């Protein structure tokens, strides 16, 4: 069994729940990275076919800023960790964004609570919202309709 090395003070009973893998520096439980990596692997998002532009996510965590850059070209999406100018910049704490990408918080509710700030082309952010997961336990409407049609 391969074991991941943890940063000092991040053992099984550590007070800080965000353990890091020493080999990669990545959080062991990293919903934001998982979310962006999944988008990058898919490469094309039909929900973004009407969009072209760049969105940069500046996520604050432990007095640092983690950046993700999405380059969208008519649905083709490239994800990187590059810095630079973008058509739309989304700023948030890492914790708030983790809640969004796990479906525990809605992006608009986070924005209304001023936990998320937006600069630039808001249309891109609205289109990107289509990729956000629903709340835990949510079902696709078609699945719900099929379940309702089944005899009791």
UniProtKB/TrEMBL annotation:
<dbReference type="InterPro" id="IPR003033">
    <property type="entry name" value="SCP2_sterol-bd_dom"/>
</dbReference>
<feature type="domain" description="SCP2">
    <location>
        <begin position="44"/>
        <end position="132"/>
    </location>
</feature>
<dbReference type="Pfam" id="PF02036">
    <property type="entry name" value="SCP2"/>
</dbReference>
<dbReference type="InterPro" id="IPR036527">
    <property type="entry name" value="SCP2_sterol-bd_dom_sf"/>
</dbReference>
<feature type="region of interest" description="Disordered">
    <location>
        <begin position="132"/>
        <end position="152"/>
    </location>
</feature>
<protein>
    <submittedName>
        <fullName>Sterol-binding protein</fullName>
    </submittedName>
</protein>
<feature type="compositionally biased region" description="Basic and acidic residues">
    <location>
        <begin position="140"/>
        <end position="152"/>
    </location>
</feature>
